[in-house]
UniProtKB/TrEMBL annotation:
Residues 40-126 form the Proteinase inhibitor I42 chagasin domain. The keyword DNA-binding does not apply. This is Protease inhibitor I42 family protein. InterPro entries: Chagasin-like_sf (IPR036331), Cys_protease_inhibitor_I42 (IPR052781), Prot_inh_I42_chagasin (IPR018990). The lineage of its organism: Archaea, Methanobacteriati, Methanobacteriota, Stenosarchaea group, Methanomicrobia.
Length: 129
């Protein structure tokens, strides 16, 4: 029994150490990071988290600027059931694989409307080293 516990603890420790050696880091960017330039090492996961309210027809159109898109997901706000017009948060994930400078850009608008000069925009420059 004692040996099993020690073995399990040893395996858990080894796995934790291996996971920590992958060098993968995460860089979160939010609405307040609009216009920011961020330096990251190659292999970094970039996560953009912005407020969005698709119930009004508005959503973000994001362009990863050459970074590898690995997914996106919308998370509605927790509101009482039956609440109309509530928004949430949309997250986009990118992988910074190759050295270089990349610009992630987004525009917040209704998909069926033409782009206008007064549309809300978001941008960040990612420098991968």
């Amino acid at each position: 029994m004692k040996i099993t516990v020690i073995m399990v603890a040893g395996i858990a420790l080894a796995l934790a150490l291996v996971a920590g050696c992958t060098g993968t880091s995460i860089q979160w960017l939010y609405e307040g990071d609009n216009g920011r330039t961020v330096d990251v090492p190659a292999g970094t996961e970039i996560i953009i988290s912005l407020p969005e309210n698709p119930t009004t027809g508005y959503s973000w159109e994001m362009n990863g600027g050459g970074l590898t898109a690995t997914g996106d997901e919308y998370y509605p706000d927790k509101v009482p059931e039956g609440t109309v017009g509530s928004g949430g948060t949309h997250e986009w994930k990118y992988k910074a694989e190759n050295a270089g400078t990349y610009t992630i850009e987004g525009i917040y608008k209704r998909a069926w409307e033409e782009t206008a000069t007064d549309d809300k925009r978001w941008q960040a420059t990612i420098v991968v080293k």
